[in-house]
Every structure is written in structure tokens, then in C-alpha cells.
């Protein structure tokens, strides 16, 4: 009997054994294929990074070499610098460097990209590069040359010694043998050198909304954690002393930086949490979020809009008008902008989230409003609405119009005629400069987003 059983089981066991070996082999082959693909992607990104950095140095040199009156060549060179730095940043993001201290070099490339873009989009014949901006370009050229030289050394070692990026990823993840890795050492050296340079004067062309958002410039006294706790409780309609059974925890952020804030976490009795951020200077609310699930849609558009408007008035956001509406997960999202003398002020913006089951406000994003220039005056248009409309495409069907202050590509505030309309099956906002009559910008309104027309 045992012989007969063995004669049956042995072939089955053998077959299973061979199958297990084959399965293991296939798994090994698939794993190797994935590793090879990842390694090839890393190698491609690294070598393209070297290529773009080399071309970046050439473009900076050529831009500095042309005459200061060659505005067309300067703009072309600056546009190429912006494009190449953007591509270099993209390639850095594809490399396994997330856990390495490479922030100095990345920040340098980001600022260079922004500087080049802001300078290239302006009319250099009317606003040529200043002496300080030329000086900045020269400093960028020297820094870029040094980064390129260090990257060249890493590339030479990678090719000569056949170094693998997968080893870099493993070394970073395991935190072992990092000091002996040529690639890791090279990138650390680049980052250190960038940090040793004196701060570059990026000038007006390098200014961004982020760079000027210093909380220390906001009005009002410095707030204590206790004062922020009371402010959060008041905002939520709670009794500050007992918070109606809720726990309010305040954490200070930013340390000695220019962006000092408090994060507030309100824990409800059921364990759910509400998150809020306040500025330390002045105690201005930046945002709040109550991420509760909204199971049903019971309110219509008009009711939700009225709830949002009443909320803003109640919490001292005067003169805000709704301009866009979106809806998802049974939550209505309204964007409001400030107004002055009947003109929409788009840099002064808040976003309000309304739960469509009961009209509760479950979110507010007010950072743009907090940092908006409250002294801004729109001025009077030199170009009339009818004159501005003549520059529109004849097929553009205007649905709504308003005067508006916007930020153009150079991040300067300009007064513009805002036309909302349809063309080619899409809805667009077109802004015509109210002083020059030239088209400032065109924005496509997403299909799932809806403009709110003036009453």
C-alpha cells in the first residue's frame, strides 16, 4: 500500500517542487527587472541633470555676454535659464535624495528659476535689467559653474566605477555606510557649498508671494498660546474656560524664522479633531478644517452661498464677494475676493467650505487675505470697457464682466477688465490691462468649477 501511495505522491511532490522552483525563479526575474528599470530611471535622471546644468551655465554666460541693449536676446536667455532650472529641479526630484540634506541647493535652483522667470516676462525695453540684477546674474553664473563642476565629478565617478543609484537608495534607507558612498558624499558637498555662499540679493525679479509672507510684518501684538486658545474657542463658538468638553491643544511653530505660527488641535468628545493655524504676530487665523464626513446633500446653491457669506460677515471679513463655486463629497467650496470701490481685489482671497447636509462651515483658507495689501487702491481705468472688449476674440461670448485688480506674471498688481465667457466649448476668464489695453492673462475655468456671476 505504501509503495502504491508513494508512486502516486512522489510525482505530485516532484511537480510541486519544480513548480516552487519555477515560481521562485520567476519572482526573482521580475524583481530584477523592477530593480533594473528603477536603476535605469535614476541613471537617466542623473545624466540629464548634468546635461541641463551644463547648458544652464552656458545660457547664463551667453546672457551676460550680450549687450545690455539686446533685450530680445536677454529675454530669450532668461527664458532658457528658467526652463533649464525647472527641468533640473524635476530631475532632482526623481533621484533618491529625499532623506539627504540637499535643501540649500534645491532652494538655490528654485530662487534662480523664479528670478529668471520674473525678469523674462517683463518688457525689458521699458524696464531693463538693473545693475543689481546684472550683479545677481553674475553671482548665479559663478554658483552654477561650481555646482556643475561638482556634478561632473560625481558623473565621472559613476561612469568610471560603475556606481549604482540603487546602492544609494539602500544606503539612505538603512542609514548605513552613507559616509563611504561617493554619490551621497558628492551631493552633500554641493549642498554644503551652497549653504556657505552669502545670501544673494534677488532683487524685485526674485520676489515672490512666499518670500514676502513674513508674519512679523502683520499688524497686532504678539499672541501667547493662552490667547490663541481663547481665540480658537471663540471662533468655534465654545466657552473658552471649559471648551464644552473639548480639548484644545496649541503648538508653536517656526521658532526664530520669519513665519511664526501656532497650530491648534481641537479634540471633540467623539475623538474627531478640528485643525487651525494662527499667526503668532497679531493672532490672525490662516486656516481651519473640520474634516467630518458629509453623508448627504440637502442644501441648494443659494442656501450654501448665503451660509458662506453670513459666516464671513460674522467673523469680520467685510466686503467679500463670491467668484467661483465647486462641489465634491457633498461639500460646497466658495472662493470669495475682497472689493474696494466696486472693484474685485483678487489678491485678497478666502475659500469657504460649506457642508451641504446642514450648512455648517467646515473649512476656511484665509492666508491670502491675511497677507493681502490692505492699503491697495484700484485707481481708475484709462481704457474703457468697450475699448477693452475690442481686443477679445470675435467668437468669445461674454457672460459676465467686472473691473478687477489682479497679479500679473511679474507679480505686480494691475487694474484690469475681467471678461468671463465661452469659446470653443470652454469657459474662460480674460483680463485686459485697463491702462494699456493689452491682454494680461487668460484663465480656463475647470469643467467642474463654476464662475459666480455678478448680481
Question: How is this fold's topology laid out?
Answer:
Blueprint: H1 2-65, H2 71-94, H3 103-120, H4 131-161, H5 165-174, H6 182-196, H7 209-212, H8 225-235, E1 247-253, E2 261-267, E3 273-279, E4 285-289, H9 301-314, E5 320-328, E6 331-340, E7 343-355, E8 361-365, H10 367-371, H11 385-389, E9 397-407, E10 413-423, E11 426-433, E12 439-445, E13 450-451
Parallel strand pairs: 7-9
Antiparallel strand pairs: 1-2, 2-3, 3-4, 4-8, 5-6, 5-13, 6-7, 7-8, 9-10, 10-11, 11-12
Helix pairs in contact: 1-2, 1-4, 2-3, 3-6, 4-6
How does the major sheet shape up?
13 strands, mixed
Mean pLDDT: 79
Q: What is the alpha-carbon Rg in Å? A: 29 Å
- Class computed from helices, strands and strand pairing: alpha+beta
Overall tally of domains: 4
Strand content: 15-25%
Name the shape in a single word.
globular
**Count of extended strands:** 13
H-E order: HHHHHHHHEEEEHEEEEHHEEEEE
| Fraction of residues in helix | 40-55%
Query: First CA to last CA: what distance?
Result: 94 Å
Put simply, the count of helices is 11
Report the uncertain regions: 204-212
Give a brief rundown of this model.
With 455 residues, the protein is an alpha+beta fold. Helices cover 44% and strands 22% of the residues.
Amino acid at each position: 500500500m505504501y509503495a502504491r501511495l508513494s508512486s502516486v505522491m512522489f510525482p505530485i511532490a516532484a511537480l510541486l517542487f519544480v513548480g516552487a522552483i519555477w515560481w521562485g525563479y520567476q519572482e526573482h526575474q521580475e524583481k530584477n527587472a523592477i530593480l533594473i528599470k528603477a536603476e535605469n530611471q535614476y541613471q537617466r535622471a542623473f545624466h540629464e541633470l548634468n546635461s541641463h546644468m551644463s547648458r544652464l551655465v552656458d545660457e547664463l554666460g551667453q546672457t551676460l555676454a550680450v549687450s545690455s541693449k539686446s533685450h530680445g536676446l536677454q529675454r530669450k536667455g532668461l527664458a532658457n535659464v528658467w526652463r533649464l532650472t525647472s527641468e533640473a529641479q524635476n530631475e532632482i526630484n526623481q533621484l533618491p535624495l529625499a532623506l539627504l540634506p540637499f535643501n540649500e541647493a534645491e532652494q538655490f535652483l528654485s530662487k534662480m528659476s523664479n528670478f529668471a522667470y520674473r525678469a523674462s516676462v517683463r518688457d525689458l525695453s521699458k524696464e531693463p535689467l538693473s545693475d543689481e540684477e546684472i550683479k545677481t546674474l553674475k553671482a548665479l553664473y559663478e554658483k552654477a559653474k561650481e555646482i556643475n563642476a561638482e556634478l561632473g565629478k560625481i558623473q565621472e565617478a559613476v561612469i568610471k566605477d560603475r556606481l549604482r543609484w540603487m546602492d544609494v537608495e539602500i544606503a539612505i534607507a538603512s542609514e548605513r555606510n552613507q559616509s563611504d558612498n561617493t554619490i551621497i558624499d558628492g551631493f552633500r558637498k554641493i549642498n554644503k557649498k551652497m549653504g556657505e555662499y552669502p545670501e544673494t540679493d534677488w532683487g524685485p525679479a526674485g520676489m515672490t508671494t512666499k518670500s514676502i509672507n513674513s508674519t512679523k510684518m502683520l499688524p497686532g501684538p504678539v499672541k501667547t498660546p493662552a490667547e490663541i486658545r481663547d481665540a480658537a474657542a471663540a471662533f468655534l463658538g465654545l466657552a473658552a474656560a471649559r471648551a464644552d468638553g473639548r480639548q484644545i491643544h496649541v503648538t508653536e511653530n517656526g521658532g526664530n524664522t520669519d513665519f511664526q505660527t501656532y497650530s491648534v488641535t481641537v479634540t471633540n468628545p467623539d475623538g474627531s479633531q478640528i485643525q487651525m493655524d494662527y499667526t503668532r504676530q497679531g493672532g490672525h487665523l490662516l486656516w481651519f478644517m473640520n474634516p467630518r464626513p458629509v453623508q448627504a446633500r440637502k442644501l441648494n446653491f443659494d442656501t450654501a452661498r448665503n451660509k458662506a457669506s453670513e459666516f464671513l460677515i460674522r467673523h469680520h471679513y467685510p466686503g467679500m464677494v463670491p467668484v467661483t463655486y465647486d462641489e465634491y463629497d457633498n461639500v460646497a467650496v466658495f472662493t470669495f475676493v475682497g472689493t474696494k470701490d466696486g472693484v474685485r481685489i483678487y489678491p485678497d482671497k478666502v475659500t469657504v467650505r460649506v457642508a451641504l447636509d446642514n450648512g455648517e462651515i467646515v473649512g476656511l483658507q484665509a492666508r491670502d487675505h491675511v497677507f493681502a495689501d490692505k492699503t491697495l487702491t484700484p485707481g481708475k481705468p484709462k481704457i474703457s470697457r468697450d475699448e477693452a472688449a475690442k481686443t477679445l476674440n470675435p467668437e468669445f461670448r461674454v457672460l459676465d464682466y467686472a473691473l478687477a485688480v489682479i497679479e500679473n506674471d511679474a507679480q505686480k498688481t494691475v487694474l484690469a477688465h475681467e471678461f468671463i465667457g465661452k469659446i470653443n466649448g470652454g469657459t474662460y476668464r480674460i483680463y485686459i490691462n485697463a491702462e494699456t489695453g493689452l491682454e494680461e492673462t487668460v484663465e480656463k475655468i475647470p469643467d467642474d468649477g463654476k464662475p459666480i456671476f455678478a448680481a
